[in-house]
Amino acid sequence: xxxxxxxxxxxxxxxxxxxxxxxxxxxxxxxxxxxxxxxxxxxxxxxxxxxxxxxxxxxxxxxxxxxxxxxxxxxxxxxxxxxxxxxxxxxxxxxxxxxxxxxxxxxxxxxxxxxxxxxxxxxxxxxxxxxxxxxxxxxxxxxxxxxxxxxxxxxxxxxxxxxxxxxxxxxxxxxxxxxxxxxxxxxxxxxxxxxxxxxxxxxxxxxxxxxxxxxxxxxxxxxxxxxxxxxxxxxxxxxxxxxxxxxxxxxxxxxxxxxxxxxxxxxxxxxxxxxxxxxxxxxxxxxxxxxxxxxxxxxxxxxxxxxxxxxxxxxxxxxxxxxxxxxxxxxxxxxxxxxxxxxxxxxxxxxxxxxxxxxxxxxxxxxxxxxxxxxxxxxxxxxxxxxxxxxxxxxxxxxxxxxxxxxxxxxxxxxxxxxxxxxxxxxxxxxxxxxxxxxxxxxxxxxxxxxxxxxxxxxxxxxxxxxxxxxxxxxxxxxxxxxxxxxxxxxxxxxxxxxxxxxxxxxxxxxxxxxxxxxxxxxxxxxxxxxxxxxxxxxxxxxxxxxxxxxxxxxxxxxxxxxxxxxxxxxxxxxxxxxxxxxxxxxxxxxxxxxxxxxxxxxxxxxxxxxxxxxxxxxxxxxxxxxxxxxxxxxxxxxxxxxxxxxxxxxxxxxxxxxxxxxxxxxxxxxxxxxxxxxxxxxxxxxxxxxxxxxxxxxxxxxxxxxxxxxxxxxxxxxxxxxxxxxxxxxxx
Length: 733
Prior knowledge:
By secondary structure, the protein is mainly beta.
């Protein structure tokens, strides 16, 4: 009997799951795999999942839903979710971080004279609505109450309801209508009077309301209009926090009815005590206007006289603001405070600065809000992440050519994510382990790049091809990497070179033309070769290179902190006899009395050899480093040294120049200096002379009048006691 019952239960579960799957684009309704909504019909199917028994069901949009299609734009338009099945108590998302696809709801039209109108008829116990946008809603309702872009009614009894990170943009029109909000019409607490069970957090609206014609009587009389606001129409038990609205509310009543409340955030707050009336904290009204019969029933934030203001509790109404230009019946508010019905004054410029929301209101711009462009109000970060992962290029090919067995060749590339969501890359290994993917990260933020390296280390002879396909999360977006390479035997070297530097001890610290030779030898007789590139480094606090011999060798200097890196190119190697060293080149430079007694002279690898005809050589290289040390004059343990953390230089501050040439000169040596202006024909004019003395200033700034010079290109040359330094500038009047 138990077995039969189990089989029947499983059978019914399978039937339920299959029927549910047919109503949606995918998913199973769990938190990990929500039902996926892709069409207006599937959105309407949420009706079947209202009520307490469906409180654990999850839904999400996977694309935008446009309701401006039949039958949803015909007759009375959209039928609110839960109209026939009770309040929605599940979990509904427009966007979920890390899940593929997201959407907003567009063009919802409702023209129905009935209570509880909106995307949802009613939202009930325990419901969560998050990361959802509703754009261009248009509601017309007469003789009705509880009307909102997101929901007509939010009703609580014993489980907290959360509405967060949502926005609604649209308009409502009607007569004999009350409890109308841009987001929520009315909130009712049927539970404890000492709790605030409905949380409306991090939401915004752009909302217009105007009085519609009294088509029933045809004479334009409004009979019971009131409680119209930008976020919530009327509330008994809601906490509105970190929200803003831009609302134009017009409830002008030609019949002078009573209790016609209108406001930018909430129009009516009722409650048996201060704890169960609405809370309004850290909110702001960024624009709009309020029009009605009596100023005393209207507020930029909320009308005066509603429950929270009667209680005068600053924990209930706290830190709220409004654009100072908002008008009440055409008049500027003069008594706005952060804890009263109008909110404190702020300016449009402040409202378009992130710092106002972070520092004054305490909003979260790290995870929730953003101001995407200058001159805009905040929007949600999720709004700009809705585009799926998109790679600028979705395939990359690597050709390693010939690689010696046991050696490693590397090639680097980048993946750029031009989509809206962060991509996670679970990279599979290559089938051939000789190819390896290497990267510091496996995530790419929107509009960011991930740099990676493919290494090829062949372990056997042959030609090799391989491919991996990376399925990026979310959405399984494909990125393909194709590799190929050919492994060959490495030939035996016919020569082993040794490049070395000798040691230089007790050098005179006043030397101005000190030579450091670089030697080379080989273990075989060899001629007709050259070095394409050789790098030598030394500490520039002790030695500063000025030139190299022979002068056919190119020398480039690169400064890395206190190190000078000398790169020599196109060096002709002299004919070598086996194991007999010869001078390869000679560095000539200045001994610097810096903060070092000695420095290692390092010959860096790799050193690239070829024949003079640029043919490939097979060789090995060894390097032998040397050092240089000074004979320092001492008095006890104190050195007579001045330490400099810069090299001599001349810099033009502003270029091009009109009337005055401004130059910045750094000097080290003592002695006489001069500045010359030299044109392109070599004509020189001395414009400044000075002397650097012991203990005196070493850095100088000069302003030189060049008004008598013609327009053109010139050089400013600083002549030091042992060298020349120059900078190029242009005179343009």
